[in-house]
Amino acid sequence: MKRPSETINQLVHAICGVLVGKEREIRNVLIGLLARGHVLIEDIPGVGKTLLALAAARAMGVRFRRIQFTSDTLPSDVVGVNVFDPKTSEFEFKEGPIFTEVLLADEINRTTPRTQSALLEAMAEGKVSVDGITRKLPPSFFVLATMNPVERFGSFDLPESQLDRFMLTITLGYPDRKHEREILERDIEHNFAERIEAVTDPEGLAVLQERVREVHIDASVMDYVLDIVHATRFHPQIKLGLSSRGALHLKRAMQALALMEDRDYVIPSDLRRIFVSVALHRVLITGPVEGSVREMKKTILNDVLQSVNGPI
């Protein structure tokens, strides 16, 4: 039987075969999935977000669905709807695209708050309710949502309470010259992801997710987590720090990172490596900002890390 880290590294290798030069981002997405969280990608179009989601689903041997959100997307377009069948004189439930293992919620900020809430509630509860009947989503349900940070016209920004439901955030960005040349020479498109052979299956994925929860966290490391979380709440440049849900997401992401590196215990450097990705979309900073808000947040969060002494 393969070690969990071996399976995870095979997943990374398979996805890296089509999304070249983005191993760190791929690992962060897998951390979110293994920790039973969801991931938000804030990036411009055309840098591989759909390719990443599709490749991850194919490598894990699970279903993949995509929702292209627009201003007229309805909650029923996401969760499904009851349709009257005149032959049987009964209503039949037609599942929406949310009934899958990997869901790409493309440009989630393009749709109305009502539709956003339908998806985000399902993310938090793992089930949907239609006409008073509750239906469970697959155990490994995972959302990879995207937002375009450049085009804000006609969009509906997610409030902080909704952003807090995402475990971590990433950006893909443009590839460097070497990897962009490889993309052009190999003519990489979405059909490349369709050719990926499955490394595991839904049952194997569920086992990996259970193993994440079994990773040990020493009391000293747990105190380090609490110190960091509290530091975000009292930093002079932060007006909204990490919530208790954010602290829990940080802990689980650290466990997933440890498992990925073939450890059954968490070390302090796990926190330092994943902290910014977990906290970036959660914190609100004070005062006017010159330049990129995202970069300013990164600077402040790194300052938080430097201000707290961790265990040796």
From TrEMBL:
Pfam families: AAA_3, AAA_lid_2
A GO molecular function held by the record: ATP hydrolysis activity
Segments forming domain ATPase AAA-3: 38-168
The organism's place on the tree of life at top rank: Bacteria
InterPro entries per the UniProt record, alphabetical: ATPase_AAA-3 (IPR011703), CbbQ/NirQ/NorQ/GpvN (IPR050764), ChlI/MoxR_AAA_lid (IPR041628), P-loop_NTPase (IPR027417)
Domain ChlI/MoxR AAA lid: 231-288
Protein name as annotated: MoxR-like ATPase
Organism, scientific name: Desulfomonile tiedjei (strain ATCC 49306 / DSM 6799 / DCB-1)
